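Contributing new records

If you add data, match the layout below exactly. Sequence lines come first and carry their own label; structure lines follow with theirs. Keep one chain per record. Anything else will be rejected by the validation script.
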Amino acid sequence: MAAYSGENSVESKSSLSGIAPLEAVLFDIDGTLCDSDPIHCHAFREMLQEIGFNGGVPITEEYYIENIGGRHNDDIAKILFPDDFQRGLKFTDDKEVMFRKLAPGQLKPVKGLHKLRKWIEGRGLKRAAVSNAPRPNAELMISILGLSDFFHAVILGSDCEHVKPHPEPYLKALETLNASKDHTFVFEDSASGIKAGVAAGMPVVGLTTGNPAHLLMEAKPTFLIKDYEDPKLWAALEELDKRGGTAISTSVA
């Protein structure tokens, strides 16, 4: 898990207040709902070493963060196997099988997630999961976390022509929920995801669960939090309530 540095975050009690009344909240999945990056990194490290990648030297966490974390499998395949894209796709498919075997015994929610869930449900907010993850992975993680009945929509890269960091997945989520970008914010843990949310015109709260704060700040999140118990988050949510509360509605087009 990457170390969190509050020095790189933006102090902002009221940094979300401009979107009041709040209508919807959008979440990435990997690293945002759950700290899944260590499982992904382990699977990539083991399988790449088996095939002699990098001369059989295991990839580092830094390599994983720079080249793999938060990316769609098509992009990962091109990076790892630039001369054999089809082999790369087969490799990433096999790696996802390994991830799904490991996840049930290792996947845990990000600290404070269920407290935040209660806050969102108590205000009748619309909510969607938006991820580059393959559908079997996304559905498995959401199920393990007990969130199958929480989300009104799940938008994946495979549902879109463009994946994150392109804004299309988040714009599609807004359309599906019939929600306004002016009254919605995003939770993300990767630079590509933050860029996608920002490009879609929404404030993004970044989580330092798997990536260094300085890397995330380059993507211009509104502010960073360590997890969902971070006092900065709850100060911002309290300010949102004071400024205009929520646009209570669970109707989804």
